[in-house]
Design brief:
Length: 282
């Protein structure tokens, strides 16, 4: 696995090889909507009770499958449930930096290459950043809104009509936040990556020095720029949604500028779909 500060390279390769940069940045809604519908159908048909799995494993399996379908173009019908369970357990192990046996990693790569038809030399380089983000944000959001009727109903309404317009729509004449605002506030309060590392080279003849720069996302997104209550979960605050974001109150959970993650626009709505369908199943 690459260190986290090197994963930008994987994002660049992903954009170049798969054309996802074009799809994300130009918002090709037919493909976008098809992926959302497939994810919604997948989550709706997978309940933890039916498959005797813990809540954690349930969310992780959904997040992993959503990344395969939504980001990498896998076909749902080709995914074997037992293989999904095995790869998901290995991803969880890798996320906690626990060592994996070579034969286990070999099996993971073999399964992923089969599903993705050999399109990616090292599929884990592409899967891990998105998987780590989606599963943690989905789990946190479900836990937060499950017994909060106002927030929960925003997701249930979105689940009935999973379109970008519904995701962004405030409720009760603007008095209650949209599902998008709830997801973005969760990303602000609990960014999946609290720090981002970037390795740069400082060239000063005759020496070249490698320097690691650290951006503290958690501190930046809880600064006073977000108001006096910046440490309080409040989806009604200004600046959360795509149309409100500004340089004064940047959302950095997906990076910033030219190093921004390719899925920055797509991931929040994918999280919203998953949360909505999980809530329907609980």
């Amino acid at each position: 696995m690459q260190p986290r500060f090197q994963r930008t390279l994987a994002n660049r390769r992903l954009g170049y090889h798969s054309g996802l940069r074009h799809s994300f940045e130009n918002n090709h809604l037919p493909s976008h909507d098809d992926r959302l519908r497939t994810i919604a159908s997948m989550v709706r048909n997978l309940s933890p009770e039916q498959h005797s799995m813990s809540f954690r494993t349930y969310i992780q399996s959904i997040a992993f499958t959503s990344v395969l379908i939504g980001f990498l173009g896998a076909t749902l019908s080709e995914l074997d449930p037992e293989d999904v369970a095995f790869v998901t357990s290995m991803l969880d192990q890798l996320c906690t930096r626990a060592p994996a046996r070579p034969e286990q990693l070999q099996r993971v790569h073999s399964i992923l290459r089969q599903w993705l038809h050999e399109r990616y030399e090292d599929p884990l380089d592409y899967i891990m950043p998105a998987y780590e983000t989606i599963w943690s944000v989905v789990a946190s959001t479900v836990a937060m809104v499950y017994d909060q009727d106002d927030y929960k109903s925003a997701f249930l309404d979105f689940g009935e009509n999973p379109t970008p317009r519904q995701f962004e729509a405030p409720r009760q004449g603007g008095r209650m936040p949209s599902a998008e605002a709830v997801v973005m506030e969760m990303l602000r309060m609990h960014p999946p990556n609290r720090q981002i590392y970037r390795e740069t080279l400082l060239v000063s003849w005759p020496f070249t020095v490698s320097v690691v720069r650290i951006a503290d996302i958690n501190v930046a997104q809880r600064s006073r720029a977000w108001g006096d209550n910046s440490n309080v979960f409040d989806p009604s605050r200004e600046g959360l949604t795509q149309g409100q974001q500004s340089e004064e109150r940047p959302m950095l959970a997906f990076g910033h500028g030219r190093l921004k993650c390719l899925g920055a626009r797509w991931a929040p709505i994918a999280v919203g779909v998953i949360v909505a369908k999980v809530l329907e199943n609980l």
